[in-house]
Design goal:
35% of the residues lie in helices and 23% in strands. The strands form 5 sheets. The chain has a 6-stranded mixed sheet. It is built from 8 helices and 15 strands. Helix 1 packs parallel to helix 2. It is α/β, with parallel strands linked by helices.
């Protein structure tokens, strides 16, 4: 059963996060495929703090919005922020993901008053994050797992240092942060250690993973198919291509127009570039709402 497989995988990950010494785990949009009460229950069982500042249930935040930890004598606030997306959402979970920008703006003020350094953990795509950070929200470091370039070195957006993890845990990142006497981040030097097949394996972890694979009959071909499907879901251009192929197949090999005349590629380009005055088919839109070619 796929639901049981997803839940068991989550339990294993939470257990391993704790064994690796994680202080907290930010809730991403994919995590919300599971019921919120399940995530909270097993997070607490493993002694992990799950954080998100913009996931709500019944008008209240479903998770702690942030935690504060002292590292090397510096008080650091870790803030969780969840991407607002429809992917994987199920009505039975009963949650609401509020606007990331407004929720982050509200919570970061409180965190700033109580800490010397603010770190954002988020699965936002980097285009959305850039727009938020250009609004002068005082975040010192952001660790971003959403769509965007996976650069191995930290870089700046406005005054925020950006760190990008690798996909599917293929590497471990180490960041050395130099903080001045006034609390400002002077530099971030990071390195990525790629995990190789010849690295020593943890016997207990290997047994857990192998038992999981055997129980749910997960073969290499199944994994490859899942990865391709996941990549297509995460990449809007690939998703648009998949939709076009489905329309062509349903039309007996004949090209079929997108629903409502929309062109998903043009729609995405206009969204990312912020173009106005055009509809999603690529045609110009007059003030009266009628279409005209550019």
């Amino acid at each position: 059963d796929n639901k049981n497989e997803v839940k068991e995988r989550a339990k294993i990950l939470l257990r391993l996060y704790k064994e690796m010494g994680y202080n907290c785990v930010a809730i991403g949009s994919k995590d919300l495929e599971l019921p919120v009460d399940f995530l909270k229950r097993y997070g607490e069982k493993r002694g992990l703090t799950l954080i998100s500042s913009n996931v709500y249930i019944g008008g209240e935040r479903a998770f702690k919005p942030f935690i504060i930890r002292r590292v090397s004598g510096i008080k650091i606030g870790f803030i969780g922020l969840t991407a607002k997306t429809k992917r994987g959402y199920r009505g039975s979970t009963g949650f609401l993901v509020k606007d990331p920008a407004s929720e982050l703006g509200a919570i970061v003020k409180e965190v700033k008053k109580r800490t010397e350094l603010t770190v954002l953990l988020t699965d936002l795509d980097q285009i959305t994050l850039r727009r938020i950070l250009n609004g002068d929200i005082p975040i010192d470091i952001a660790i971003v797992s959403g769509n965007g370039p996976r650069l191995r070195k930290a870089y700046l957006i406005n005054k925020t240092w950006i760190l990008s993890p690798t996909e599917r845990g293929n590497a471990i990142g180490v960041a050395r942060v130099l903080v001045g006497g006034d609390g400002k981040v002077l530099s971030v030097n990071n390195s990525m250690i790629s995990l190789k097949g010849y690295f020593p394996e943890d016997k207990d972890t290997k047994e857990i993973v192998q038992a999981f694979i055997k129980k749910y009959h997960i073969t290499k071909s199944v994994l490859r198919k899942r990865i391709r499907r996941q990549q297509a879901m995460e990449n809007p251009f690939l998703r648009a291509l998949m939709e076009a192929r489905k329309r062509r197949a349903s039309g007996n090999g004949q090209a079929a127009s997108p629903p409502n005349g929309q062109n998903p590629f043009m729609e995405l380009i206009h969204k990312m570039t912020g173009e106005k005055g055009r509809d999603s088919s690529g045609k110009g839109v007059s003030p009266t709402g009628s279409s005209s070619h550019p």
